[in-house]
């Protein structure tokens, strides 16, 4: 029995869904704990590609219970359309559970997300425009609408009668946009509630029962550590807590039930949206990474935007190990580096203002914008890795590269992914039952 959290250790899109899908084979329950349909998770199984936004990637295995936890924000339209696309492909949806207390993304959240972005001009965040920030803002302001509210027309009406006129002031006065009609929203969203009703339950209690019954629970993170509201590159972050700690709050479970935390990183790095990205390559290398990566989907799954590409950043890698308490790491997309003559890794930063160098970042503050990468260079392996299935089959230079990353971050690399398919995977160490991470260094 093991309860495992899978988290993105970079800026999102690390290949979490592929890793979740792999691990879900041995799980009984798969839980999404934060975020909403800003996530775009791709799984390739038997030549078929599945793209998930709200529904846990574990749904592809028959019989697994999949949950959308209370820490998520759910756009009912997006949920129902994603569900339909899966049931149309023959998936049984009776295993899907939706928390009654997850917050609902309402039409005004979508409009305000887009309008706020436009109004920011050069300071825009580059959000996915899925209403994520405004939905979480209302949740924190204690004026959000929760899934259970959609099931009670009287409650929903009371909430909308108070909320919509307030949002209309913002829409009309601040953004010069048309007002919304609370009555139309009431009818539309009550109807969505009726369609979602059969999935709605107390997911936190269900997880606890699963724990008591010694079931294996997999917590599937969305976004990534550097997009975390508290620990990411604020304000260029999402509005939830994708880091491992967020799983406890977002799923409604205590930290004592967690056995293991697995981080997922690409063998290089990408970012979608605005914000600092110290190892970003805008020239030939970036284009090469994007070109190869694009063939392998280096465009946002949710928005179709090209991903910004760059070299692996060990300073951020060490930071992710610390913030999430990672036990081990899965490195994905090693195959994208197959053709490079030279591969660079950022081993430290130099502050462009003070000249000070850093191997570790205490926190990500405003000085992050000033950090310049110091690189170490590695020879490429110039050989396809996509059919390798064991560590010893990987070219020596690829093994050397992975060893260097593991040693520098003081974490075990348990899985290496060499292609999008399930079997394009090298398992170096059992990611679930391997030894707990040993802190080899003692700091004073
Ligand atoms: P997530 O949001 O972290 O789940 O990642 P995305 O699904 O947004 O992006 C990862 C993309 O890379 C998807 O298109 C995956 O199918 C693909 N992918 C995952 N692992 C590998 C790999 O090892 N090699 C290659 N070439 N593609 C991969
Ligand atoms: P997955 O789960 C990559 C980014 C957006 C933007 C910032 C804020 O597929 O890894 P938001 O819409 O959340 O308010 O946008 O966060 N972002 C992601 N980037 N992968 C994601 O999800 C992301 N979800 C949000 O591009 O920079
Ligand atoms: Mg993604």
Describe this entry's structure for a reader:
- With 444 residues, the chain is an alpha/beta fold.
- Helix content is 31%, strand content 20%.
- The protein has eleven helices and 20 strands.
- The protein has helices at residues 16-24, 76-88, 107-120, 132-140, 153-174, 182-196, 203-212, 244-251, 284-295, 314-324, 396-409, and strands at 3-8, 29-32, 41-45, 48-52, 65-68, 73-74, 96-99, 103-104, 200-201, 217-220, 260-266, 269-271, 308-310, 312-313, 328-332, 342-351, 357-358, 371-379, 412-417, 425-427.
- The strands form five sheets. Strands 9-7-5-2-10-1-11-15-19-20 form a ten-stranded mixed sheet, sandwiched between helices.
- It is globular, with a radius of gyration of 22 Å.
- The mean pLDDT is 94.
- The site of 6-O-phosphoryl inosine monophosphate (IMO) has 24 residues, from α4.
- How many strands appear in the DSSP assignment? 20
Based on secondary structure, the structural category is: alpha/beta
How many helices? The count is 11
Mean pLDDT: 94
How much of the sequence is in beta strands?
15-25%
Helix content: 25-40%
| Unreliable residue runs | none
What overall geometry do the principal axes of the alpha carbons give?
globular
Largest sheet, strands/sense/barrel: 10 strands, mixed
Radius of gyration: 22 Å
Strand order, sheet with most strands = 9-7-5-2-10-1-11-15-19-20
For the terminal residues, how far apart are their CA atoms?
A: 36 Å
